[in-house]
Design goal:
Number of domains: 3
Structural class: alpha/beta
Shape: globular
Helix content: 10-25%
Largest sheet: 5 strands, parallel
Radius of gyration: 22 Å
Number of helices: 6
CATH superfamily of the largest domain: FAD/NAD(P)-binding domain
Distance between the termini: 60 Å
């Protein structure tokens, strides 16, 4: 049977989902949250390092501390939380969601849905590195869970492939727990993580960072015994004469995250670069009743920003569920030169908006231009760091609805 559901159904109980459910409930909407794990929080529970909350709480918190604050607010909001509950189908012709939980199969018909499922780590198989597939190869998140949750070391000597933030943090973590970290290898000519993590996780501990390098071969039988590392040219092709063998028993992969949009990709358009749903300034997708927030929209650097977009989606979904909907004029955004990730894809007249973008290359200083209505200069931009541009409600002025505005980043 289909159960008439809440005003707002949030799917996913990470930072974005908890913030969205809290905001929707506080706005007066009956709210339900589905979380597939035993408790909400997502990956925050295993991120025991600090660096969270500086923007949201003006304090430096660990991941579990940040998650606990979100959870306390969620509990106080009155939102209903169903854990060990996994959404398995969403009807595209109306908000009917089917889920599995310990009590059986559940079908609900909410007025609005917020999709907040986060992202998955890119697996080793997608990298097409030749060689055997021995034990000892882990994604950074799995290695982090082994060490921080289960108290297990994955090996004795490790190499990190990719310089994303989780990989940098795990390089430090493995070093502190007694493993030798041979190097962090990055195919790009610049690091993939935040500058502060490069400094605090690698430079402070003397861990080498090999830029414009990659792995060209895997060696081992039952267990990994080593990898072949080579420099790459400007096109990313390995330079054969630069190859060298590095003996390690552990390979940790920090090669990117893939937004999780399997259930909605069939009926709402995805951004080809972000790989998440196209959303407007209220985080609403092209499907009128579907909102999206968090790393399933685009990969954010900071959990503070993930929670912030969750709140935007929660408040907007609650207003729509109550019938308090005004459709303002919209201005589509188009990527221009120098722009990679871009959220949202449409601005709404009269709606204050935080625009999130990544540059395609490092620039210092840089000029950010949004159509004809906003230009600002920032000290520096880097592909590894998302830039936030805050636009007030009156930023778009009058007229011009439907006319695309180009977003560009260039050297100032």
């Amino acid at each position: 049977m289909t159960r008439e559901g809440p005003d707002v159904l949030v799917i996913g109980g990470g930072a974005a989902g908890m913030a969205a459910a809290t905001a929707a409930a506080e706005a007066g909407a009956s709210t339900m949250l589905f979380e597939r794990e035993r408790e909400p929080g997502g990956v925050l529970a295993q991120c025991i390092h600090t660096g969270f909350g500086l923007h949201r709480y003006q304090e430096e918190l660990s991941g579990p501390e940040f998650g606990e604050r979100l959870l306390r607010a969620l509990d106080a909001s009155g939102a209903q939380v169903l854990c060990e509950c996994s959404a398995v189908d969403i009807a595209p012709d109306g908000p009917v969601v089917e889920a599995l939980h310990p009590g059986g199969r559940l079908r609900v018909r909410p007025r609005t849905v917020i999709w907040a499922t986060g992202a998955q780590e890119r697996p080793f198989g997608s990298l097409m590195i030749p060689g055997p597939r021995p034990a000892g190869i882990y994604t950074a998140g799995l290695a982090q869970r082994f060490v921080n949750i289960h108290g297990l070391l994955p090996g004795r000597r490790a190499l990190i492939l990719g310089s994303g933030d989780i990989g940098l943090i795990m390089a430090r973590r493995l070093h502190l727990e007694g493993m030798e970290v041979a190097a962090v290898v990055e195919i790009q000519p610049h690091p993939g993580g935040l500058v502060r993590n490069v400094v605090q996780c690698l430079e402070d501990y003397g861990i080498p960072l090999l830029l414009s390098h990659t792995i060209t071969a895997i060696a081992g039988g039952d267990r990994l015994t080593g990898v072949t590392v080579a420099a790459v040219d400007k096109a990313g092709r390995p330079i054969a004469e630069s190859e060298r063998y590095v003996a390690v028993d552990t390979l940790v992969l920090s090669v990117g995250l893939i937004p999780d949009n399997e259930l909605v990709a069939g009926f709402t358009p995805l951004d080809p670069v972000n790989r998440g749903p196209l959303v407007d300034a209220r985080m609403r997708t092209r499907v009128p009743w579907l909102y999206a927030a968090g790393n399933n929209v685009a990969i954010f650097d900071l959990v503070d920003a993930v929670a912030a977009v969750g709140e935007v989606a929660g408040r907007a979904a609650a207003r729509q569920a109550r019938g308090d909907v005004v459709e303002p004029g919209a201005i589509p955004l188009v990527r221009g030169s120098g722009v990679h990730h871009l959220v949202p894809s449409r601005l709404l007249r009269g709606v204050p908006t935080t625009l999130y973008l990544r540059a395609t290359r490092p620039m210092r200083p840089a000029r950010i231009r949004i159509g004809e209505f906003h230009t600002q200069t920032v000290p520096a931009v880097r592909p590894s760091e998302m830039v936030e541009v805050r636009l007030p409600a009156d930023a778009l002025g009058q007229g011009g609805d439907g006319i695309p505005a180009t977003v560009e980043v260039s050297e100032a």
